[in-house]
């Protein structure tokens, strides 16, 4: 029987329920499947490089299996790059891919609900198909990214934006993705837009957002 004199348990850390279990199942098929619907990942890297041609320190939030970390390490051979992700299984794949880049790439396993290195700052923070899964938590992540940037640094984001198809929104919800255009207003409020573009996927079944914002 519960005693009413027992101290209450500390609150569980804010993290999306089930995300780690979801990626435990999906990590093995992630790279073979996501090319067919995570559009704009190369385009956002182009736009990020146009905004920040030679960043010294880069952070990728929700780096997953490390596809973008490898692209960043190749494109910016002098940069120190950090990838943060909740999923140990996704990070294990990222670790294998980024081993050739040695100590230039650091991986952290944690929820991104606070800055990783606000004191030193990053010139570039990349969020690629991550924040639409931070439910709850996207507001804290955008604020953490703002604090992780140096003044004049850029956040580059590509993510699901919205859909008019209710069946699709429901299906994406089952897959932990929120798609009601909720990221764009907060991004616009937090960081001055350099790129702010909505693109259509599969003839308009859904839209995705390319956003590059500058910290004042
Ligand atoms: C769709 S994947 C994107 C991976 C990679 N950025 C890409 O473009 O392929 C989303 C990633 O976000 C991670 N993630 C979800 N919620 C997170 C959180 N609160 N903190 C850190 N990572 C999180 C997941 O574990 C997953 O690896």
Overall description:
The protein is an alpha/beta fold and 216 residues long. It has a single domain, classed as Rossmann fold (3-Layer(aba) Sandwich). 34% of the residues lie in helices and 26% in strands. Strands 3-2-1-4-5-7-6 form a 7-stranded mixed sheet, sandwiched between helices. α1 runs parallel beside α4 and α5 runs parallel beside α7. The chain is globular. The N terminus is likely disordered. The site of S-adenosylmethionine has 25 residues, from α1, α3 and β2. This is Ubiquinone/menaquinone biosynthesis methyltransferase.
How is this structure best summarized?
The protein is an alpha/beta fold and 216 residues long.
What composes the largest sheet? Answer: 7 strands, mixed
Strand order of the largest sheet: 3-2-1-4-5-7-6
Quickly count the helices: 7
By CATH reckoning, the class would read Alpha Beta
GO biological process, one term: methylation
Domain Methyltransferase: 58-153
GO molecular function: methyltransferase activity
Keywords: Methyltransferase, S-adenosyl-L-methionine, Transferase, Ubiquinone
């Amino acid at each position: 029987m519960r005693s009413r004199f027992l101290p209450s348990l500390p609150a569980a850390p804010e993290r999306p329920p089930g995300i780690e279990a979801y990626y435990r199942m999906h990590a093995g098929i992630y790279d073979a499947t996501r090319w067919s619907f995570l559009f704009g990942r190369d385009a956002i890297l182009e736009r990020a490089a146009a905004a920040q041609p030679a960043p010294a320190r880069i952070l990728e939030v929700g780096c997953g299996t490390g596809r973008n970390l490898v692209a960043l390490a190749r494109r910016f051979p002098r940069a120190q790059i950090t990838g943060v992700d909740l999923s140990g299984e996704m990070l294990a794949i990222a670790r294998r891919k980024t081993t050739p880049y040695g100590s230039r790439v650091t991986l952290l396993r944690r929820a991104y609900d606070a800055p990783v290195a606000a004191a030193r700052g990053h010139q570039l923070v990349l969020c690629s198909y991550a924040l639409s899964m931070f439910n709850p938590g996207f507001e804290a992540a955008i604020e953490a990214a703002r604090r992780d940037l140096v003044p004049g640094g850029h956040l580059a984001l590509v993510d699901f934006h919205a859909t008019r198809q209710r069946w699709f929104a429901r299906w994406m919800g089952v897959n932990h993705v929120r798609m009601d255009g909720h990221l764009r207003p907060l991004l616009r409020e937090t960081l001055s837009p350099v790129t702010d573009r909505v693109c259509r996927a599969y003839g308009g079944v859904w839209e995705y957002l390319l956003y590059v914002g500058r910290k004042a």
